[in-house]
Amino acid sequence: MIDRRRVVQGGLAAAGSLSIATPMNVLAQGKPPVKVRYNEVVRSLMYVPAYVAITKGFFKEAGLDVSLATAFGGDKSTAALLSGAADIALIGPETAIYVLNSDSSTKIRIFAGLTSTDGFVLIGREKVDKFDWNMVKGKEILGFRPGSTPLLFLEEALRMNGIDPQKDVKLNNNVAIPARVGSWLAGQNQYAIFNEPDPSQFEIDGKGYVVASIGQTTGYADYTSFMATDQYIKQNPDVVQSWTNAIYRAQKWTESAAAPDVVSAIAEFFPGINPKALASSVDRYQKLKIWKNSPVIEPGPIEKFQDILVHGHVLDANKRVKFQDLVLTDFAAKAK
After folding, report:
1. What pLDDT sits at residue 31?
2. What are the C-alpha distances in Å from 19 to residues 35, 65, 249?
3. Residues of the domain holding 42
4. Nearest to 66 by CA among 45, 78, 51, 81
């Protein structure tokens, strides 16, 4: 069971490249589908609406012939966009911010949102009737890679509850991603952050219990977004609009669908994962509203996201970017 869960954390290499077939009705209308090379930063349940857009045929019906590749890292997704190896990518907004602040002549713009906030949750070793963040004081917490978005959001959640991440807790951030589950099961740390489906599987096995949602604690801060280079968007506005329309349909479907139906729609992207854990994961993320119900991105959550980057010392305050320079709002506003 544990090895199967690690498949997700390891990136599902076998599923790293996928081609979505061409819809016959598009060809019959004499309109050849447009090929889109899509790159996701990792394979994750936080991206369920994107998988739904594939399996429910929303991309096909929009006239898009999509090939999916998984990068296994924000730097790799960004490189794929900048090098022209990918057309559209799903990455955290920080990547576009860093590129805007760089010397690169090619810039990356966000055009649609997918996740409303961080999907990681804090787990403990015992069930608690009512969790208080003060419970973690003096404890060891399995964090994430230094400078990573999951760690930055955890630190922000701690600070928002009066806890100094550097003094009041011990954050262990040196455990490699494939080893994190094993580390927890070996009894290391009193608390840890994980994203689904690991927390649900821990609860099923009695090996850990969700005590708090990091995203719910920090508030809305668009965690993952669709983006492309300014050149691609300028040359292919119809493709970007069709993509945004398909994602909007998938978001609406995911919001209202029963958890078992969502599991059926995405199961092929998560082979070997316990269906009960998948159902629990979907139910939790629906309740926490991790998935946006619209591709629209507002200025407030982007400002919150940049606040977290600044507080985490990965973005200088004078390097914050203007919302209008980062996000192109027209496509989401016109989504249907």
Report:
1. 78
2. 10, 8, 20
3. 2-117+221-333
4. 51
